[in-house]
Automatic annotation (TrEMBL):
Residues 5-135 form the PX domain. It comes from Euphydryas editha (Edith's checkerspot). This is PX domain-containing protein. It comes from the Eukaryota. The keyword Repeat applies.
Length: 465
């Protein structure tokens, strides 16, 4: 990103070409500040308007701008001559205003889009005028990566000599707004910004100004861009990181820790209030020890990653909801020893064939196993005695294509068959009647005496005596 105040002597402007659109001639200006460059196009009338302001307010010579020409002003020869004259004009004005760089001139050259200082002036004005309304009405405020980078870089600068004295443009308005933001969204991009050579996802920033942040959503931003999380470990409640190519949770949880060694970490890196983590659509293949840094975690979403097995997360005593859909699970063994008292599990769109690993999840209320490879209806025997289970999804498994699939599943829940919601639908009375018949046949087949026959035999013996 451009930093004009640090690269004044390494900055140039050039009117490089002229082009016509809808019978109007535009002159393309290339601006270079250090290694950063961009271009902006203006018609001659824009130069005239700018010149009037610079003459009136900043002492630019009135006769410096090349004059107007009414007749034959569209010929290629004239357009080229005017381009050369405008180029000379712009270079002279740029040199003359190099130290002061007034806002009118900066905006004409699009400094407010690509330069740290001038972008922050515009942002400060916006937040001075609209900040309170934004805080009141917005559910989540969105800062661009270039804005966050500019704020972070401004912290490193002394008060620049071009800083406006008008209170409206004071940097403190930005800091005040940031300190009050409760919910923040950040979206990254690998596409160059506007006409510049600036790539947003190559800019560094930190989150130090956000003192009250509760909810943070990050989309498509590499974790390497974040240099510090500031005080978020003491305030953040909900965290979402999507499409960021994350392979480990500690990429964010320890983003500002140089040595990510489990044995050397102190309590200062614990996320004290974080209860919701959503790292869906990344490249995570293992839930590592960093999960212990979030002891209050209640909701964990790792959907659309590359997980094939689950490590021990029983240390998360408050964990209630676990979303592992669209991963690579095929075998789930002894999950009761790994996940504690989880209430809801989503394992849809995996490659699971057996339910044996869920047989001792006694606190489980909801289990989504849709779009897996379960083919035998008898697998339900492993979960039919879970006392709290109410919601079960098996749709889009091979077993769901079998004859009387719903009845055969519901029947295995015995006395609780009417309580079970299978594939988002409770059993109808017809299904329950059929299930009771199947249950009776199963009992006979297993050589057991149905309860109603036991009662009849007892009564007969009593009458006989």
């Amino acid at each position: 990103m451009s930093s004009f105040i640090n690269h004044r002597n390494d900055s140039t402007v050039n009117v490089v070409e002229a082009s016509s659109k809808d019978n109007v001639t535009f002159y393309k200006i290339v601006v270079k500040v250090g290694s950063v460059q961009w271009d902006v196009s203006h018609r001659y009338s824009d130069f005239v308007e700018l010149h009037e302001k610079l003459v009136n307010d900043h002492g630019v010579a009135k006769d410096l701008l090349p004059p107007k020409k009414v007749i034959r002003n569209k010929t290629p020869k004239f357009v080229e001559q005017r381009r050369e004259a405008l180029n000379e004009y712009l270079k002279n004005v740029f040199k003359y205003l190099l130290l002061t760089m007034p806002a009118e001139f900066a905006h004409f050259l699009d400094f407010h889009l690509y330069d740290i200082f001038f972008l922050l002036q515009d942002l400060a004005k916006k937040l001075f005028l609209e900040g309170d309304k934004l805080l009141e009405n917005e559910k989540s405020h969105k800062f661009s990566l270039i804005e966050l980078h500019a704020i972070s870089e401004r912290f490193k600068m002394a008060c620049p000599p071009t800083e406006k004295q008008d209170q409206m443009f004071d940097f403190s308005h930005i800091l005040d707004f940031c300190s009050q933001v409760k919910s923040l969204s950040i979206e990254g991009s690998y596409e160059k910004l506007g006409t510049s050579n600036i790539v947003p996802n190559e800019l560094y920033f930190d989150l130090i100004p956000f003192k009250s942040l509760i909810d943070l959503k990050i989309l498509g931003v590499p974790m390497g861009c974040i240099q510090s999380v500031g005080s978020l470990r003491d305030s953040l409640v909900s965290l979402s990181v999507h499409i960021a190519s994350v392979v480990s949770l500690n990429e964010f949880l320890l983003v500002d820790v140089l040595h990510k060694d489990q044995s050397s970490l102190a309590d200062t890196v614990i996320w004290k209030k974080l209860t919701v983590i959503n790292f869906a659509s990344n490249n995570i293949n293992n839930v590592d020890w960093a999960i212990k840094l979030v002891p209050k975690l209640q909701h964990l979403n790792l959907s659309s990653n590359k997980l094939s097995e689950l490590c021990d997360i029983s240390c998360l005593h408050d964990l209630q909801v676990l979303n592992l859909s669209m991963n690579r699970f095929s075998i789930c063994l002894n999950w009761h020893a790994k996940i504690g008292n989880v209430v809801k599990i989503d394992l849809s769109q995996n490659k699971i064939e057996s339910l044996q690993g869920f047989s001792k999840l006694y606190s489980l209320e909801s289990l989504d196993l849709s779009c897996n490879l379960i083919s035998d209806v008898e697998e339900v025997q492993h979960i039919c005695n879970l006392p709290c289970l109410e919601y079960l999804w098996l749709t889009a498994n091979p077993v769901a294509s079998s004859i009387d699939y719903r009845v055969k599943v519901i029947e295995q829940f015995n006395a609780r068959m009417s309580e079970i919601c299978l594939d988002n639908e409770k059993a109808s009375e017809k299904e329950l009647d059929t299930a009771r018949v199947l249950q009776a046949l199963r009992i006979v087949k297993e050589g057991k005496t149905p309860s109603f026959l036991k009662n009849n035999n007892t009564s007969h013996s009593f009458n006989k005596s």
